[in-house]
Design brief:
Blueprint (H helix, E strand, L loop, with lengths): L13 E3 L11 H9 L6 E8 L8 H10 L1 H10 L14 E7 L26 E2 L7 E2 H7 L11 H5 L1 H11 L11 H14 L2 E3 L6 E3 L2 E9 L2 E4 L9 E7 L4 E7 L9
Antiparallel strand pairs: 1-2, 2-11, 3-8, 4-5, 6-7, 8-9, 8-10, 10-11
């Protein structure tokens, strides 16, 4: 279906793929955790096909066409009934696109967390006193505070990886988040969602597995300013376009921070 024409030579059109489901939104155990973390009903993933070859240098054009496409706009409006999406009420006039490194094909990135003092041998997160936040712990301190002695136990480059970014989003949760006492639920849910969202391929000769997806953190603006994923700046309100250039599929992965009345 034809999308609204962008102001560029190359245009992209998008069609929803309702049959392409992500497993993390079908799994009861994961849904129970998302509800505990105050993210259920506010986190979602919708996939689309597109009709032109994607190149990373074209990311801004791709994202602008995406947010102007009538089928995308319509699908976001339909999802509004469940509370899962923010509608695009006005025409998007510009986008901000930030490439997010995505190269990891294992969970080894998190190995340092188990031996640096953030966790007890049992996997329980070490609690700590905090002037601002009661019931704080060393895991969230490592995620949020650069002056934490553990901040760079996961290196600077690794902290920028989408795998770590996803882990951080889950650990911080939503507005009424009930935090975990152990790290295992965060790790297992990160792994599940990452595998859902990211495409990989195996080299037939070397047998090496590598990521083929491109991950883009996106913000859309209308004439009044930023309109998507939300008008207010909030770290836990986010949207990523995850592009599989070979299948010509893109998944919009989204969360809106706030209070929701959602049940399983």
């Amino acid at each position: 279906m034809a999308g609204e024409k962008c102001e560029f030579e190359q245009t992209f059109s998008f069609s929803p793929l309702p049959s392409k489901k992500v497993s993390f939104l079908q799994d009861k155990d994961t849904l129970a955790l998302l509800m505990k973390w105050s993210m259920l009903g506010r986190i979602s993933a919708q996939s689309y096909s597109f009709d032109q070859t994607f190149f990373s240098y074209n990311s801004e054009k791709f994202a602008l066409c995406f947010f102007r496409d009538p089928d995308v706009i319509s699908s976001l409006s339909r999802g509004l009934k469940t509370g899962a999406w923010v509608p695009l009420d006005n025409t998007v006039v510009s986008v901000d696109v930030e490439p997010v490194p995505c190269t990891k094909v294992s969970m080894e990135l998190f190995d340092p967390l188990y031996s640096c003092g953030i966790l007890r041998p049992s996997g329980h997160v070490v609690k700590c006193f905090h002037d601002v936040y009661p019931d704080f712990d060393e895991l969230r301190r490592m995620l949020l505070e650069e002056d934490s002695e553990h901040y760079y136990v996961v290196g600077r480059e690794e902290r920028g990886e989408f795998l770590f970014v996803l882990f951080k989003h889950l650990c911080l949760g939503g507005e009424l988040c009930q935090y975990e006492d152990t790290i295992d639920p965060y790790i297992s849910t990160t792994k599940q969602i990452y595998k859902d969202l990211i495409s990989v391929q195996k080299d037939p000769e070397s047998k090496k597995i590598s990521v083929v997806s491109t991950v883009l953190k996106v913000y859309a603006h209308d004439e009044s300013g930023r309109c998507y994923p939300g008008r207010r700046e909030e770290e836990q309100t986010f949207a990523y376009l995850i592009v599989d250039p070979f299948k010509r599929h893109v998944t919009l992965f989204y969360h809106c921070y706030g209070v929701g009345n959602f049940t399983l």
